[in-house]
Amino acid sequence: MGQAAVRTALAELEARFGPMEPLGTGHEARVFKSGPWVYKVYRPKERELAFLEAKNLARPGFGERVREVAVLESGHGVLVLKHFPGRPFCPACFDDRTLASLAGLLLRLHRLPEPGVLEAEALTERIDRFERELAGLEAARPVFRAVRDRLPLVVGVPRAFGHGDLWAGNVLVAEDGRVFVVDWARAGALDPARDLAILKTGSLDLLGPERAMRALARIVRQYPEPEALWGRLSFWIPLTYLHDLYWFKTKAPAGLEGAIEEKLPAALALAERFPRLWEV
User: Fold this and answer.
1) What is the pLDDT of residues 218-257, one digit of tens each?
2) Which range is least confidently modeled, 18-32, 54-68, 185-199, 221-235?
3) Residue ranges of the domains in the chain?
4) Same fold across 3-82 and 86-279
5) What's the CATH superfamily of 3-82?
6) Contact at 8 Å (CB) between 154 and 193?
7) Which of 37, 65, 96, 151 is 20 to 30 A from residue 250's alpha carbon, by CA?
8) Considering the domain 86-279, what is its CATH architecture?
9) Secondary structure, 3-state, the chain
10) What was the pLDDT predicted at 2?
């Protein structure tokens, strides 16, 4: 979003709602705060995302956090939300209270059924796309072999409602341990194991590999059929590491070398041997 467009939208916001404090910039929106409310401002061409995010928040029962959805005269979409007093997920703010709140929130989402099942063709196309783009990364070949071998574990799995982007910046933790997740515009139908894999690679990994796996296992044990869910994670976690490398290669190549150094060893370790749930 250009600076002139931001200034125009901000001026209209402040005329309507009062002085604004900038909170940050997301992939699709600029975020401001005024009093107890957060204002997410979407570009005019993406203004429908404000309405979609409000709809997605209502799906698991978080609609009470939405104050208003509107289109400004400038064409920007605005979602007005109750502010959650938390900071992004980090090792210092993680404890048993955080884990319990996080697990409860995820179960709340993943109990909501969505139409359809996971199909082999779409999953294979994704793996193929990643492998084409990362063809020069010879060290990743064992990871690609592992995800292809484990593909039957996820084909035919019923979809459920999920967030789809549980990286640390979206997982907010309050001082009392409560957790809330932000940025719901991309939520939708998925395998719950996919959500948990993103949580692991994008948030829990900040705890270190052993602590991350233990936290993930504690969450999984609260689900129905935890062994089956854990088995699907043996596919989704290595694939999510590959997705991260693909993202850096195509979207932020300057960070690819660092991503390879950070993520590829973890992907290789879990591709070679994914522990049983009772071993963690």
Assistant:
1) 999 999 999 999 999 999 999 999 999 999 999 999 999 9
2) 18-32
3) 3-82, 86-279
4) no
5) Phosphorylase Kinase; domain 1 (3.30.200.20)
6) yes
7) 151
8) Alpha-Beta Complex (3.90)
9) CCHHHHHHHHHHHHHHHCCCEEEEECCCEEEEEECCEEEEEECHHHCHHHHHHHHHHHCCCCHHHEEEEEECCCCCEEEEEECCCEEECCHHHCCHHHHHHHHHHHHHHHCCEEEEECCHHHHHHHHHHHHHHCCCCHHHHHHHHHHHHHHHHCCCCEEEEECCCCCHHHEEEECCCCEEECCCCCCEEECHHHHHHHHHHHCHHHHCHHHHHHHHHHHHCCCCCHHHHHHHHHHHHHHHHHHHHHHHHHHCHHHHHHHHHHHHHHHHHHHHCCCCHHHC
10) 62
Who contacts 152 (Cβ-Cβ below 8 Å, separation ≥6)? none
pLDDT at residue number 1: 54
**What is the token pair recorded at 211?**
């602590």
Taking the C-alpha atoms of residue 247 and residue 132, their distance in angstroms, rounded to an integer, is 13
pLDDT tens, residue by residue, 93-138: 999 999 999 999 999 999 999 999 999 999 999 999 999 999 999 9
Distance CA 90, CA 5 (A): 33
